[in-house]
Every structure is written in structure tokens, then in C-alpha cells.
Design goal:
single chain, 57 residues, alpha+beta, two-stranded parallel ribbon, 2 strands, 18% strand
Length: 57
Amino acid sequence: MTATYDFTNKVALVTGASQGIGFSVAKGFAENGARVVLSEALLHKCGERIHLVNPAW
């Protein structure tokens, strides 16, 4: 069973978002309509991933 959520017009802040669970959570929010802000201790890792989560950026 797959849960469906609508995060349209919502913003999600995800910490540890460049890899692993954080990246999966960020992608999940984006796939369900949220604008996602990635937070990571290593800034260059977020830059590499932002376009995978928010393709329009």
C-alpha cells in the first residue's frame, strides 16, 4: 500500500539531505508537490543534489 500526500504550496526543510535517508525524504517531498530546502554540513554535496530533488531550480 502506498500513501499519497499533497504538499502543494508547502516548503519542506530536510537536514542531512545529500545522501541516504535524508535524500530519499527530500525526493519524496518533492514528488508530492513540496518545494524542498536541502540542509547539509558539506555545502557542495547539496549543490550536486538540488537538481535531482527540484529539477526546476
